[in-house]
């Protein structure tokens, strides 16, 4: 007599189980298939193209009525199994009991619905089955309909792209810092975001959903940061969890999923489970390839053949038409791993391979994914790549022949080949100019031919041409690269950030072809500064790319404690401030107090966790951060000037306070210290500062480019100002020029030496329009910079910085 | 396996950042990289005792905030020309929760 097989769930895994089963032995079982949906097995991963209108439901059906009939499968679609009675070996549904000898549970997974207010409103939906797709398609019929997709993973982005194709206004909310963080590194995430934004999809990362708003149905979604997005539908695509309820109720062993053996057998020998509902060796699966493997094993187990499920590595591809994205394996960095990164900014390509012991263990490809399966095949086989190491990243087409010499490729180009697209310069023009004019530097070639002088993306081609034309006499190392992550120098990077309008660190790294995925401790702080300075109000400061002092707004000391220096405008203070400083020192047992060289007071030895408390007390006495830790404006030292001094010619204290109040909070390439002296006796020592003012009877002498540290150097006189207003405008414009031109960590005196005093005077002294423009740019950026960082942190910003993640005491002595 | 202790969630730590776990054995710095991998090392640079949790995190490395020594987070070895080693601690991450073996926290306490 035929044994009875009951299958719960008509998804992709169970469909495959039945196929393999009938191949192995069509007569073995009398099969009954239950499914909650009113339809049979279809290819669920193709729902995205159906939603996008690129395929129809009929095209994604895998098993139709004829197939079930031909194989003698009794289908009971739309009938949900409510319980399993393992003693009686029957399953229960609304039509009563159905007996089984063997049972396969393939209940799949349920979408995870985030527990926020309004989640049950009509219009909130998941993206899981054809009913969801039909609801979304209906919503898209309404003109100007708006969708908010919660979740920037694979599923959410496919839904977003499809809904956009249907004409909806789409916003994607993603909790993490970049899209698809489980499959992609930040660089590829950036490229993907750029592509989707180009299609008119709005992407909001680091978005914490607070509530779904609406009376009778969805009207909007609000975020923790206060943003509100109007919405006609909300699609939840934040993840899935195994659907295990009936297994749990039946008393089977269930952890995160239904626990199965290598043979796909649950804790009951007559019950098997396959698909997204199972847990195998503490892992649950959501991609289709392992589910198919499970199905193959389950079918063999059912016909009593030996088989064992072994987890294999899987690759991911995003199914959005026009986006090529491929990721496989493990792409975290570690010491025993190497990475090969290829970035081609002009064609939007990013490829990264992670190797361990000469074997590929991970791959992320964006823009050009043709070699994905080739890399993945080597990853699975553990192929030794030593022989092809140098050309591996270029893909399969480059293997087998002679190693590719990049210079040879340029040498092979004809003279009329265009090298610089921006300025239309061909190869012959460049080589003949190098020879004719005797040029030996890149700057020389740029000056005479304009090649690579605009966007710079052909710089490496021009350099190869120079190497080719000049041979050994060309020394490309003339430009010091920023760090080993790039060949570009600071000046090129700054120029390209402006020219290409790069507004985030991942954008810079991609477009300028960084050689590492995440930069290093040298380039990241520099890039963060360049972006802050170039795009005020647009660039979002990246705290994790700042040195600790600028991240916690205090100076780290050798023992890991911090020093705290409140601002004392122009070096002036009063009893209230001094009392508050004394009180805070008592309250927090601060071990040392010192007067600084910049006319303020330093509280030394403050514990990190005490910083917010110390700042709160100083804030309430009216004091703000002195930025004594910052690459930014530090102090403006003053003398007492005409207020008190019998020699004072002007109100030097007043001018110092005015400058400090105007300029505090600004970020600069390196620290900036200023001083204002009331007469040429120069008690404020203005002539060794970055910027100094010496007051005279006729007005103000503006000095700059002094140093009294590693180097000692007197200032140079920039110009003479007649009024305080004029002095302020000159100083501010000068600082802005420095902010825009200097390399990160380059003090004013070094910058001035490099660019020349004449060029600075031409911008700030001789040309009043230019001076005014620099002044205005500084003033604009101050709108975003003049926020007291202490007050922000007293109010809870970056709270994670000031508390341990966990505390563990000594265990109670166990006897 | 012994019962590991939950020390926090992955999302408690900023990406490319670190938090400390205070134990009788001293501070353990727990790092989260850009691609969400978690590592735990001793929070003390062998050079001059710098708190490594405060350093800039790049790739699977951290640069000490005091004198710029660079350590590999997986092996604890100093990189480049510097020679030195910090202790590493095994970590398990399940469902976004970070676990550490309790004996690890205690053993250095003697």
TrEMBL record, chain A:
This is Nitrite reductase. Its cofactor is [4Fe-4S] cluster; FAD; siroheme; [2Fe-2S] cluster. InterPro entries: BFD-like_2Fe2S-bd_dom (IPR007419), BFD-like_2Fe2S-bd_dom_sf (IPR041854), FAD/NAD-bd_sf (IPR036188), FAD/NAD-binding_dom (IPR023753), FAD/NAD-linked_Rdtase_dimer_sf (IPR016156), NasD-like (IPR052034), NiRdtase/SiRdtase_haem-b_fer (IPR005117), Nit/Sulf_reduc_fer-like_dom_sf (IPR036136). SUPFAM superfamilies: FAD/NAD(P)-binding domain, Nitrite and sulphite reductase 4Fe-4S domain-like, Nitrite/Sulfite reductase N-terminal domain-like. It comes from Devosia geojensis. Binds 1 [4Fe-4S] cluster per subunit. Binds 1 siroheme per subunit. The lineage of its organism: Bacteria, Pseudomonadati, Pseudomonadota, Alphaproteobacteria, Hyphomicrobiales. Pathway: Nitrogen metabolism; nitrate reduction (assimilation). Coiled coil: none annotated.
TrEMBL record, chain B:
The keyword Protease does not apply. Residues 4-100 form the Rieske domain. Gene3D superfamilies: Rieske [2Fe-2S] iron-sulphur domain. It comes from the Bacteria. Keywords: 2Fe-2S, Iron, Iron-sulfur, Metal-binding, Methyltransferase, Nitrate assimilation, Oxidoreductase, Transferase. One of its GO terms (biological process) is methylation. InterPro entries: Rieske-like_NirD (IPR012748), Rieske_2Fe-2S (IPR017941), Rieske_2Fe-2S_sf (IPR036922). GO terms for molecular function: 2 iron, 2 sulfur cluster binding; metal ion binding; methyltransferase activity; nitrite reductase [NAD(P)H] activity. The keyword NAD does not apply. SUPFAM superfamilies: ISP domain. PANTHER family: 3-PHENYLPROPIONATE_CINNAMIC ACID DIOXYGENASE FERREDOXIN SUBUNIT, FERREDOXIN-RELATED. This is tRNA-(Guanine-N1)-methyltransferase. It comes from Devosia geojensis.
């Amino acid at each position: 007599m035929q044994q009875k097989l009951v299958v719960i769930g008509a998804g992709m895994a169970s469909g495959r189980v039945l196929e393999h089963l009938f191949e192995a032995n069509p007569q073995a079982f009398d099969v009954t298939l239950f499914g909650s949906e009113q339809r049979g097995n279809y290819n669920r991963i193709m729902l995205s193209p159906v939603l996008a209108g690129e395929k129809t439901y009929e095209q994604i059906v895998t098993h139709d009525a004829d197939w079930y009939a031909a194989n003698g499968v009794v289908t009971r679609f739309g009938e949900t199994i409510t319980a399993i009675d393992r003693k009686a070996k029957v399953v229960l549904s609304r039509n009563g009991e159905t007996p089984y000898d063997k049972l396969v549970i393939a209940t799949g997974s349920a979408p995870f619905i985030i527990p926020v207010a309004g989640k049950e409103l009509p219009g909130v939906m998941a993206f899981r089955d054809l009913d969801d797709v039909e609801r979304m398609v209906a919503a898209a019929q309404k003109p100007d309909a708006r969708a908010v997709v919660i979740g920037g993973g694979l599923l959410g982005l496919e839904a977003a792209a499809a809904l956009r194709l249907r004409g909806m206004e789409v916003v994607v909310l993603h909790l993490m810092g970049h899209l698809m963080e489980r499959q992609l590194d930040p660089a590829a995430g950036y490229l993907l975001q750029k592509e989707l934004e180009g299609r008119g999809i709005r992407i909001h990362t680091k978005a914490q959903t607070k509530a779904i708003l609406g009376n009778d149905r969805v009207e909007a979604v609000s975020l923790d940061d206060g943003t509100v997005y109007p919405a006609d539908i909300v699609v939840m695509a934040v993840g899935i969890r195994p659907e295990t309820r009936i297994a749990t109720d039946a008393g089977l062993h269930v952890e995160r999923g239904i626990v199965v053996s290598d043979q796909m057998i649950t804790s009951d020998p007559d019950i098997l489970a396959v698909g997204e509902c199972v847990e195998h060796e503490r892992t649950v699966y959501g991609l289709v390839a392992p589910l198919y493997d499970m199905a193959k094993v389950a079918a063999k187990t059912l016909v009593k053949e030996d088989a064992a499920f072994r987890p294999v590595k899987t690759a991911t591809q995003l199914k959005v038409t026009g986006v090529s994205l491929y990721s496989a394996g493990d792409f975290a960095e570690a010491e025993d791993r190497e990475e090969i990164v290829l970035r081609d900014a002009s064609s939007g390509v990013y490829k990264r391979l992670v190797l361990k012991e000469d074997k590929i263990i991970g791959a992320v490809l964006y823009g050009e994914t043709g070699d994905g399966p080739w890399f993945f095949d080597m990853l699975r086989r553990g192929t030794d790549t030593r022989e092809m190491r140098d050309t591996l990243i270029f893909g399969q087409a480059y293997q087998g022949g002679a190693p590719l010499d990049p210079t040879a490729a340029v040498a092979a180009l004809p003279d009329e080949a265009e090298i610089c697209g921006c300025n239309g310069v061909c190869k012959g023009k460049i080589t003949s100019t190098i020879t004719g004019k005797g040029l030996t530097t890149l700057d020389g070639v740029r000056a005479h031919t304009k090649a690579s002088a605009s966007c710079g993306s052909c710089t490496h081609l021009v350099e190869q041409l120079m190497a080719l034309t000049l041979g050994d006499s060309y020394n490309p190392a003339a430009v010091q690269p920023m760090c080993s992550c790039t060949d570009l120098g600071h000046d090129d990077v700054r120029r390209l950030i402006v020219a290409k309008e790069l507004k985030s660190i991942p954008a810079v790294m991609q477009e300028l072809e960084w050689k590492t995925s995440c930069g290093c401790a040298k380039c990241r702080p520099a890039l963060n500064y360049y972006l802050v300075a170039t795009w005020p109000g647009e660039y979002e400061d990246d705290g994790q790319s700042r040195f600790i002092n600028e991240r916690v707004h205090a100076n780290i000391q050798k023992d890991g404690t911090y020093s705290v220096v409140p601002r004392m405008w122009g070096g002036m203070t009063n009893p209230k401030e001094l009392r508050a400083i004394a009180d805070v020192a008592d309250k927090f047992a601060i071990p040392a107090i010192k007067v600084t060289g910049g006319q303020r007071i330093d509280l030394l030895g403050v514990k990190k966790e005490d910083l917010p408390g110390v700042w709160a007390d100083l804030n309430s006495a009216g004091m703000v951060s002195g930025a004594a830790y910052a690459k930014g404006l530090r102090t403006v030292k003053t003398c007492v000037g005409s207020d008190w001094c019998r020699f004072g010619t002007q109100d030097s204290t007043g001018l110092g306070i005015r400058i400090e109040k105007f300029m505090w909070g600004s970020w600069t390439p390196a620290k900036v210290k200023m001083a204002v002296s009331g007469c040429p006796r120069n008690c404020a020592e203005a002539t060794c500062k970055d910027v100094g003012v010496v007051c005279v009877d006729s007005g103000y002498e503006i000095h700059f480019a002094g140093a009294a540290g590693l180097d000692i150097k007197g200032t140079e006189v920039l110009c003479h100002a007649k009024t305080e207003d004029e002095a302020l405008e000159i100083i501010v414009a000068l600082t802005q020029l420095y902010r825009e031109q200097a390399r990160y960590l380059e003090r004013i005196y070094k910058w001035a030496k490099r660019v020349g005093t004449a060029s600075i005077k031409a911008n700030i002294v001789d040309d009043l329009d230019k001076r005014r423009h620099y002044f205005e740019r500084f003033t604009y950026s101050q709108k975003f910079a003049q926020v007291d960082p202490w007050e922000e942190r007293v109010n809870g910003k970056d709270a994670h910085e000031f508390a341990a993640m966990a505390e563990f005491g000594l265990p109670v002595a166990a006897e | 396996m012994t019962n590991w202790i939950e020390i926090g969630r992955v999302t408690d730590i900023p990406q490319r950042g670190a938090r400390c776990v205070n134990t009788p054995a001293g501070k353990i710095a727990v790092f989260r990289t850009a691609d969400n991998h978690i590592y735990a090392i001793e929070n003390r640079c062998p050079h001059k005792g710098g708190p490594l949790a405060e350093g800039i995190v790049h790739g699977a490395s951290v640069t000490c905030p005091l004198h710029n020594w660079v350590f590999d987070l997986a092996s604890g070895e100093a990189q480049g020309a510097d020679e030195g080693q910090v202790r590493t601690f095994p970590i398990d991450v399940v469902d976004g929760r970070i676990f550490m073996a309790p004996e690890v926290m205690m053993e250095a306490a003697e």
